[in-house]
Amino acid sequence: MKNLLFIFSATIALTVACNQPEQRLQADVEAPVEVVDVTLKSIEDVISTTGVVYPKGVIELKSKLAATYYLENNPRTGRPWQMGDRVMAGEVIVRFEDREFVNSVKLEAQELNLEVAQSELQKQESLFEKGGVTQRELKNASVSYINAKYSLENARLQMEKMRIISSIEGVIVDLPYYTPKTVVESNSVMVKIMDYKTMYMDIKIPEKYMSRIVKNQPARLTNYTIANDTIPGMVSQTSPAIDEESRTFKGVITADNKEFLLRPGMFVKADIVVNRRDTVIVIPKDLILSRQRGKTVFVVVQGRAVERIVTTGLETNTEVEIVRGLAKDERLITSGYETLSANSRVKILR
C-alpha cells in the first residue's frame, strides 16, 4: 500500500513539474503590435455643402451700328483675339469701318467748332472786364461754348460705336466668328467677357446649422478636376430666413480665384470651417474601443499594453481630438490592439 501511494505521489509531482514550463511559456508570449508616437497637430470641424460658382462680373458687348467688321490683335500675343485670352479694361477687341457714318458725325468739325467757341468766349470775357461788351453778349458766348462742348462730346460718343472696347478686366469666354471686311448687323453679339478672379457660390445649409454658420468663417472649395488644389474662401453673406419647404437658409461664399483654377459654372464642394483646434492630440477614430467604462485606447509602457480611458473632442470622418487620457510622445498601439487585454506583454513590430 505504501508503495502504491509513493508511486501515485511521484506521478502527480512529475505531472505538475512538466506543466510549469508550459504555463511560464504561455505567460511570456508577446503579442505583435504596431505603434506610433503621439504627436500634436490641428483638427477642424467642417460643414460641407455643394453648389455652382459664378464670376464677379460678366459683360456681353454688342455692335451699335451696321458696319464693316475687323477683329483686332491681342497686344500681348500679336495675334487676333481668341477665346481664353485675358483682356484689360480699355483694350479694343473689334474695330468697325463705315465712312458714311464717320462723315455724318463730323468729329473734326466739332473739334474745330469748340476751339472757335472757346476763343470767342475768352475774347468776350476780356472785353466784358473792360466794359466793351454787355453781359448778354458774354452769356451768348458762354452758351455757344457749352453747346460746342456738348456737340463734340456727342460726336466722340458716336465714334465710340466704331470700336468694341472692354470695360472690365477679364477673360474672353465667347467670341462669335465674323469674316473680316463683312458687314455685321446692329445689335450683334461681338464678345462676352468674364471677370472671375473672384468667384461666388450660392449655398443652402440645413436649418440645424444656422447657429454655427456665421459671416467671415473660412471655407475651402474643391472640384474633382482640381483634386490636388483647394481654393480659399469665406462666408460673405448669410440669410436670417428659413425656407419653409426645404428647411434650409441661404448663404454666399466668396473665393479668391487669382490662379483661375475655378471656372465659371463649375460644380464644387465647399468645406466651411466652423471650429478648429491647433496643437492638440489627434488620433485615428478607429483606434478607439468602446468599453463599459468608456472609450479606451492601448499604449505601450515598459513592454506591456496599458489600456487608457480617453475623453474626445472635435471629430472628423477619420480623426478625433483627445482631450484627456493621452500625452505627447506616448507610443499608441495602432495594430493588434483588438485582441489585447490589459497588461499583456507586446512585441513592437514597428
Explain how this protein is built.
The protein is built from 4 helices and 20 strands. It has 350 residues and is of the alpha+beta class. Helix 3 packs antiparallel against helix 4 (135-160). The chain folds into 4 domains: 29-43 and 279-348, conserved putative lor/sdh protein from methanococcus maripaludis s2 fold (Beta Barrel), CATH 2.40.420; 46-54 and 197-276, Elongation Factor Tu (Ef-tu), domain 3 (Beta Barrel); 64-96 and 165-187, no CATH class; 99-161, Helix Hairpins. A 6-stranded antiparallel β-barrel has the order 2-9-12-11-10-13. Strands 6-5-3-8 form a 4-stranded antiparallel sheet, with no helix packed on it. The model is unreliable at 1-18 and 21-26 (pLDDT under 50).
Sum this structure up briefly:
With 350 residues, the protein is an alpha+beta fold. The protein has 4 helices and 20 strands.
Spatial strand arrangement across the major sheet? 2-9-12-11-10-13
Question: Helical content, roughly?
Answer: 10-25%
- The helix/strand order is HEEEEEHHHEEEEEEEEEEEEEEE
Sum up the overall morphology in one term.
Answer: elongated
Could you tell me the CATH topology label of the largest domain: Elongation Factor Tu (Ef-tu), domain 3
Gyration radius (Cα, Å) is 41 Å
- Summed up, the domain count is 4
- Fourth-tier CATH superfamily name of the largest domain: Efflux pump adaptor protein, beta barrel domain
Termini separation comes to 61 Å
For the report, how would you describe the main beta sheet? 6 strands, antiparallel, barrel
Low-confidence stretches: 1-18, 21-26
Overall pLDDT metric = 89
Going by helix content, strand content and strand pairing, the class is: alpha+beta
Helices, by number, come to 4
Number of strands: 20
- From the 3D coordinates, which CATH architecture of the largest domain would you assign? Beta Barrel
Any idea of the CATH class of the largest domain?
A: Mainly Beta
How large is the share of residues in beta strands?
35-45%
